[in-house]
Amino acid sequence: MSDPIRIVEVGPRDGLQNEKTPIATETKLAFIAALAAAGIREVEATSFVSPKWIPQLADANDLWRQLPTGPLYSALVPNLAGLERALSVGVERMALFTAASDAFTERNIRMTVDQSLTVFAEVASRFRQAKPNGWIRGYVSTAFECPYAGRIPISQVIEVTGRLIDIGVNEVSIGDTIGVAAPIEVRGLTTALLREFPSERIAMHFHDTNGLAVANVVEAIDRGIRCFDASAGGLGGCPYAPGASGNLATEDLVYLLERSGWHTGIDLDELSRASLIVLEALGRPPAAKAQVAQLASASGTSPT
Ligand code: HMG
Ligand code: MG
Q1: Distance 14 CA to ligand 2 centre (A)
Q2: Residues with CB under 6 A from ligand 1
Q3: pLDDT, tens digit, for every residue of 175-210?
């Protein structure tokens, strides 16, 4: 348990990107400030994608300039146009995103996986010139199943992960984009990944569509994974992944880790307060189990 586990908070990006209700930039900033106050150290704050495709994150440049100091911030970048926008506001950590399935990338970023890796090689090289000490994450979405192409063979995930590492990413986050995987599949995939790549290179990104995200984290920790993405309040989903519901809730992840003896440095009460800022803006009640339980215990009622 001395081995730290990293949490990458993706709520301001993955949590909000699919929400139709526009959230004001000031509300996003208040959310991020509250996450920082709760002890969150890594935040994926926004995306420099086309505002026509993801209107909710059209304020990326404006938001980035006002981010509170404290956490390490990163943002999604899909192409050279996005990179130029990101560099213009001083982004030092970026995430490139592809998938294990052409059918998904063609809908999500209008490129095949091969085309995306060609574009990303150029984006990564230009980023390294501008930011020699910068940090790059790569995403492999639909790592277990694609909503369009079905089940994905492990070999395809290994191949795309290797190609991302070859173009110089520091870490690859493996996405169960539609939240369908069960622990036995996580065991198979993470065992295969850790045979090929050091564990510092691999993060897991679970969505909780079927309620198995926490069980999948337990399995991945057992195999040796030490970095997980999560979204405060369990918000999230990708507009190009029909059926994808919320991400693994950060509250559930923090509860699991703390209860199991892994120190996170994150205060669950403060985290729940941060989630309430966006939930209230969206007009939605808390749904993450650990948040509902925390709120019930704070108010002295039973969590029913
Ligand atoms: P496209 O329409 O093929 O782009 O979209 P284009 O190059 O033909 O350009 C069309 C217009 O967009 C042009 O403007 C460009 O200037 C503009 P116009 O001439 O029509 O006025 N444009 C941009 N504007 C701002 N920033 C940019 C940019 N690029 C072009 N970066 C594109 C291709 C990749 C841009 C588009 O498909 C896109 O933005 N996709 C993003 C989709 C997205 O964000 N999906 C969600 C994130 S992935 C995810 O959620 C999965 C993950 O969570 C892991 C998991 O769960 O598995 C990461
Ligand atoms: Mg996601």
Answers
A1: 6
A2: 14, 17, 47-54, 76, 78-79, 81-82, 85, 97, 108-110, 139, 141, 175, 177, 205, 238, 240
A3: 999 999 999 999 999 999 999 999 999 999 999 999
Task: Please indicate, yes or no, if residue 304 is contained in any of the structural domains.
Answer: no
Token digits of residue 271: 């985290």
Residue 171 placed within a domain = yes
Return phi, psi of residue 246, to 5°: -60, 160
Residue 1, in any domain of the structure: no
The three-class DSSP label of residue 3 is coil
Q: Quick one: 95 exposed, middle or buried, by C-beta within 10 A (0-12, 13-18, 19+)?
A: buried
Would the CA dihedral through 272, 278, 280, 284 be positive or negative? negative
Pairing between strand 145-146 and 150-151?
antiparallel
From the number of C-beta atoms within 10 Å of its C-beta (0-12, 13-18, 19+), residue 24 rates as: exposed
- Mutational test site, ligand 1, from 13, 49, 238, max ligand atoms within 8 Å of CB: 49
The CATH number covering residue 74 comes to 3.20.20.70
**Catalytic: 238?**
yes
pTM to 2 decimals? 0.97
pLDDT band at 243 (very low <50, low <70, confident <90, very high): low
The total number of structural domains that make up the chain: 1
Give the H or E element holding residue 75: strand 72-76
Domain carrying residue 284: 6-299
For the CA of 176, the nearest atom of ligand 1: 57
Q: Provide the 8-state DSSP code for 68.
A: P
Residue 46 lies in a domain: yes
From the list 7, 172, 238, 271, the catalytic residue is 238
Alpha helix positions (H), the chain: 16-17, 25-38, 60-65, 80-88, 102-108, 113-130, 154-166, 183-196, 213-223, 250-259, 268-282, 289-299
